[in-house]
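Q: Got a minute? One more chain.
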Amino acid sequence: MARGGSALAGIALLQSSALMAQHVIDMKTIGYVRVSTDKQADRGVSLEAQAEKIRAMAVVHNAELIDIIVDGGESAKSLNRPGMARLLALVDAGEVQTVIIAKLDRLTRSVKDLCTLLERFERRGVALVSVAESLDTGSAAGRLVLNIMTAVSQWEREAIGERTRDAMSHKRTNGERVGNIQFGYRLGADGKHLETDPAEQAVLDEIRRLRQSGHTLRGIAAALNHRGHRTRRGSAWRLEHVARITKQVAAARRAKPKSARKAGKKAKPAKKAGPAKKSSAKPKVHRTNKKADVIAMMKRAKGGLADRKHRG
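A: Always. Here it is, folded:
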């Protein structure tokens, strides 16, 4: 009887293990890969590398990899991506239990967007697995570490942006080229600094003069073409070209008075010293002790009386 009970227990244990293994194998999983530029998407190197990592992780988890969703040439600054929309639709429909990504920044670079995704996944019972960071949001510890790493990633991206803006501002201040060269200037002989272009400066002066005389943008374009002027690319002037140049002229005019004030600002001359003004303050009066003065007066009075008696 005991042997029979032990055999039945062993059979039940085997059946339970088989059911658990079947549940793990049936776990539906979706992979997600993304690259930022179309050039990377065309090459496919980064996409394929991500896909290989996702397939390997699916094997480790004994998961059924249904599909790998691809977002080629899409930025991670927002969730407005075709592949992301498809992934979220599968999550909301309950057709997936796990989402595997090769690296966290392939999913999003925003802490806010990550929190939105994690809340959405948690409501649907979906776990997020990141291969590079070895994270699994199926546990509370995994979610905590994931949030911390995403916050650090966002801080790094914002810090890089601040350093880039500061460097570009410094280059502009030193007269160095930053991006496209503004009309009226050209690259200097050193290939680094900008210098004025006399021909384009003449066109700018003409545009400014015509604009001040009341010509429309279309009229200015016609006048420039009539006088043989051409754009930097050698094409005829159009309204759009003149509008862009006019904005540049207006911006320069707004900035010029401010800079001129700073450059031409002179120190105010010191005022000449005039005759000394009489002080209106009252002279200080030395005040004596009233009690001592009274005693001295009484003594003098007594001395005078004594002298008169002695004479008499």
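A: The radius of gyration is 44 Å.
Q: Perfect, thanks.
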